[in-house]
Design brief:
Structural class: alpha/beta
Strand content: 5-15%
Largest sheet: 9 strands, mixed
Pfam families: DUF1501
Oligomer: single chain
Organism: Tritonibacter multivorans
InterPro entries: DUF1501, TAT_signal
Distance between the termini: 58 Å
Number of helices: 13
Protein name: Twin-arginine translocation pathway signal
Length: 406
């Protein structure tokens, strides 16, 4: 074999694993370029893995059947006024109290009683696959709906979109950059110098090697410190290297530049037992993620940003015997950002009387979560409705514009 730059890289990675991070997440494998996107709005997609209980997050206390379904989960909060009134019908989980200023300013909204087309099996694996693929059926596409969206827009290059971690929603033919907070090349200075020498002058690998070294340098510090990169905001300048806050901080850094789309996940929403404690912790994390994005994007970029937090399915209308809820169907999507028309709960409420429930156990979806996502894409990027319904979300009827963006 001739020892050229590409062969050297391939053999180094495959034989020794010297880069210390997965091939899928390595900037050495994913082409990364620096070019402005053909639109100015930003989009952050957060996948809430595990099936978030939308009925607990945004509580329909105005429904006369709600209290009887959830006596152990919500009765104490309702009685004490710990949860927060939104519009006289819905109340917000108390763990999201830090986001109430966003609600009042119109930067936080909810789309309730939504789901993907997934029904009945209630498998996390299949539900998440369908959520990220954006198709009608499980296994119908190997790529994700955000990547197909990028394929419909001319002028997209590597840094237009960032997948932070393994995100099927951004997998596909369109160029996408990948990063993971644990990415660490773990190579000696001598090896780094050798790599730089071997890649020097190569139009494909020289720039991406420099990017990989930069990302790895950020990850080797015990704390990821975006403030040291000249970023603004009133959040603590030192954030944990791992976890959702690191992802939010890194996404904000990129979105302040040429990046227009970032996607990452927040895990831990499967609340079969002890839901009051577990869901409260996860919602506190989510509130910190959203506030980190707001602070580190700055007022100007935040004003052009839509944050979409979505989950694979909701949970049962009734609490179970383990002080939790089981896998369900209809749920809620959370929206944040200055580009969002917030301060309201969108969606047609189906009711919680037993005959109104899906399969007499779940919140009945009255809208497809893909439709809400499609209207957001339509508002932030140069996309036609025909492309959204045929290519990005095959088989989708978007319906009427719900007015999710300001």
């Amino acid at each position: 074999m001739v020892l050229n730059r590409r062969n050297f890289l391939a053999q180094s990675v495959l034989r020794s694993g010297v880069l210390g991070c997965s091939l899928a997440a390595s900037p050495l494998i994913t082409p990364v370029s620096f070019a402005a996107a053909p639109w100015d709005h930003r989009l952050v997609v957060i996948i809430l893995r595990g099936g978030m209980d939308g009925l607990d997050v945004v509580r329909p206390t105005g429904d006369p059947h709600f209290a009887a379904l959830r006596p152990g989960l919500t009765a104490a909060d309702v009685a004490s006024g710990a949860d927060l009134d939104l519009d006289g019908f819905y109340r917000l989980h108390p763990a999201l109290a830090p986001l109430m200023p966003l609600w009042r300013s119109g930067d936080l909204g909810v789309v309730h009683a939504v789901s993907t087309p997934y029904r009945d099996k209630r498998s996390h694996f299949e539900g998440q696959d369908l959520l990220e693929a954006g198709t009608l059926n499980v296994g119908a596409a190997q790529d994700g709906w955000l990547n197909r969206m990028l394929q419909c827009v001319p002028g997209v290059e590597g840094e237009t979109a960032f997948a932070l971690g393994q995100m099927k929603v951004l997998e596909g033919a369109a160029p996408v950059a990948n990063w993971h907070p644990k990415a660490n090349m773990r190579i000696s200075p001598q090896t780094e110098q050798l790599l730089v020498h071997v890649m020097e002058g190569d139009p494909l690998f020289e720039a991406t090697l420099n990017e990989a070294i930069s990302l790895s340098a950020e990850a080797t510090d015990p704390f990821f410190d975006p403030e040291a990169k000249g970023m603004s905001g009133d959040m603590s300048p030192r954030l944990p290297q791992y976890g959702p806050l690191a992802l939010a901080a890194y996404a904000a850094e990129r979105l302040r530049g040429d990046t227009r789309i970032a996607a990452f996940s927040v895990n831990g929403w499967d609340t079969h037992a002890r839901q009051r404690e577990r869901l409260g912790r996860r919602l506190s994390d989510l509130a910190e993620v959203i506030l980190t994005l707001q602070a580190r994007l700055g007022a100007e970029v935040w004003g052009k940003t839509a944050v979409v937090a979505m989950t694979e399915f909701g949970r049962t209308a009734r609490e179970n015997g383990s002080k939790g809820t089981d896998h369900g169907t209809g749920g809620a999507m959370l929206l944040a950002g200055g580009a969002v028309r917030g301060g309201r709960v969108f969606g047609a409420w189906p009711g919680l009387e037993e005959g109104d429930l899906y399969d007499r156990r779940d919140l009945l979806p009255t809208a497809d979560v893909r439709s809400a996502a499609a209207w957001i894409l339509r508002g932030i990027a140069p996309l036609t409705r025909a492309d959204l319904e045929a290519k990005v979300f095959p088989g989708l009827d978007m319906g009427e514009d719900p007015g999710l963006l300001s």
